Amino acid sequence: MFIHYFESAVFFYSTAIILLSLLLGTFALVKTRNFKLYNHKSDDEDLLRSHLTPGISIVAPAFNEELTIIENVNSLLTLNYPLFEVIIINDGSTDNTLKLLIEQFELEETAYAYIERIKTTPFKRIFKSSNPRYSHLTIVDKVNGGTKADASNAGINASQYPYFLCTDVDCILDRDTMLKMIKPILNSKSRTIAVGATLRMSNSCDIQEGRITRVRPPRSLIPRFQELEYLRSYLFGKLGWSFLNCVPNVSGGLGLFEKEVAINAGGYDGTSHAEDMDLLTKMVTYMINSNLVYKVEYIPVSCCWTEGPPTLKILARQRIRWATGLTQIFVVHRKILFNAKYKKLGLVVFPIIFIFEFLAPIVELLGLIIFFYLCFLGKINWDYALFIFLYTYTFSIVISTLVLFIDNLVKRQYKSFGEVMKLWVLVLIEPFIYHPLSIFFSIYGYIKFFILKDIKWGTMTRQGFEIKPEIQNSNA
Amino acid sequence: MNFSSLLEEIIFFFSFVPWIIRLAIGFIVFNLLVFLALFFSTYFLIRKKKRQEAHYLAYEKAYKDAIHKVLANANVLSASSILDRFETQFGRLTSVKYEEINNALIDLVTADPKLYSCNNYTPLIDGLKIKKYLERKLDFSKTANRLKAMKQLSSLKITVSDSKILPFTFSKNTPIRKGARTAYVVISNNNPFKFFELSDNQMNEWDQINLLQQLELHHKGNLPNFSNWIKYSKDPSQIIFSVRAIAHFRQQGATEGLLQLLATDNHMIREEVIRAMASLRITDGEDKLKEIYSSQPRKCQVAIIEALAQIYSMRSLDFFVDTLRITTNAELKKVLLEAIYSYGIAGREVFNNLLLTAKDFDLIILNHIKHPLNKSKFSDLNNRLSPGKEVFDYAPLEQPSPLSLL
Q: Membrane-crossing residues (chain B) (predicted)?
């Protein structure tokens, strides 16, 4: 009896996901069309020339990043924007991160009135460069707080401009990132408190002087799966949700936020493992509580390239942390779920994330267990099972193909259709290889949170960027 | 098996399967169709973009060279001879070629605005029938192309008759309406500033940036008096724009209007007025600013301190010191101390005395301010107002008062 009800429930659950996805896909297409319609290539020039363009502080925490720190800071310093500063937070690195920074950028310890508007672990000192070339670089040195959130808060405290762009120090940003991301804030009737953009994998891309010169799909399988997953998450999920002003999360890898609202909302939660979703939830809650009209926007432009976990072990660590983070969000902000007081956040965003993201791995695992149990009993109607399987499988192919279409509609990132195909091929095998792994990591994350009570941030081991032979030769 | 028997078999199969399976099969067919459509669309999209990029890359330099040759010619060329030159070199001018030529021309005039005044600039526009091409796009194309045409018309400084652009300035489509109104400022020969009179002319930050850019590029010599609109406009965003324009274009005649506007209830307008007073160095308003300081929200208080420091009349030092004495907020203290530090010899003396007695965080603030590697809030503000150079030539510290500069 239970199995019969479970089967029907799962069918309706997956049909609901499919209908929701159809809706999101339509919204994502409309948003992309509007973006193409109302953005002109001369907009960047107008912003560069204007004295009304607001200043942006780039906040990038660094913990043991000696392998890539110099190239990444150089990359941030060459961004194209009329008024910005780069704030690197050395979060108690135990390697040579700080030493390398001091040597490379001619840093000096500077008296600095650090006003702690958001509480963090103790701040130690500020470094600034004596070389005018790096005059907009600030290094905040602090005691390790254990999370990226704590370090980001210190960066926000030290920032001086009204907007801050939060990124990871290992991310390579497109030179026009800030020009692209500030536009939705400026071109809005209501107050836009956060803007997100698309992240991709930097693995296998050509990088010169901290800039992506040629985008390629990652050669290794795991980062390539992630490229597809990221594109789906940004160009389908978040972009679609932004049509309804229901963006659940602006990625920690790249997000532009209004500083005043972020500070009033309490900044990042230093103990959170999903600090990005936590911050946005708090900012939106603050706006709702203050009866202020707000907007959270997403642009379909690829602005940021990050090194994806190259091995299964590192991927597992990252995904388990994401799962514990998501659980933490629902525990900490439980009063928002299904609460009409929080409007769209309480009645749309949180319920949908809870039902279709948080519960999905549990439903899928239960489904697998029941499937194997029925196989064992020989109770599977294989003819019908094939149709049910094809029903969801073909839909997942449609969604991923739609995402690749949107990506190319916005900008042709890969040189040829062949490279797009390299990514597309993974669409066919993803449900059998990558997706089960994601379920396993999520379930393990939930177990760690609820049963083992073991929550650690963990580190992401970087390989560093591949330097092209000719550059190595010239350096030699 | 022929088609009809296959169809019969499918219908027979359908009539016996449960409705869930029927639904699933329906979705599978739908998915396959959508997939095929998306897959081939992606293929053709990539192919089209690749060809367009390759074509423009191949011809960009040739277009720019041909344009340069025409513009650099000392003799005024006839429109027909210019068209002949281009058609001989590039063949018949199709819409793809028009787009590429327009882009090349915009790149050139943006990089070197002097090209607008070349003898052959108008013959080039006439000869290539660019105006006609863009007017046709305004009349017959979709929204995106219309917006693009408006941008291109204003970038190329091509004036068109009001009948072509006016209908769009009242369009229900907001981006078209705003785009048309901004373009109208440049491309109308009639009354380019007529939309400032309208009450529905709401402007967000982006509209303001765009419009200010157009005014800067195309109307610097014949600007209207913006103080008219700060008096009569009902829309706060338009008032803010007018105040910003007054400050940006240094319309000293607007002083009285700005001082009156200081009494507004809207603190966002007030903050902008205070910043404009600073830009114009309106000494008459100094006492008023000090008077209202204590009743202002934080943003306006910061603006007042910065304005008094920028006005630099040497009459505000006592105000800074008195305010500092009663201020508990660390950020305000920092701004006040920066103001004192930049306030001439007298200010520097006060600052040094404070340095002798200050303790704890106050001492850190003082050390922060005097450290040469920490950028001053005021120099930053100056850079913002006029990127790359100081707006005001601050009087050297040796001079007791910079009032003589006014």
A: 20-46
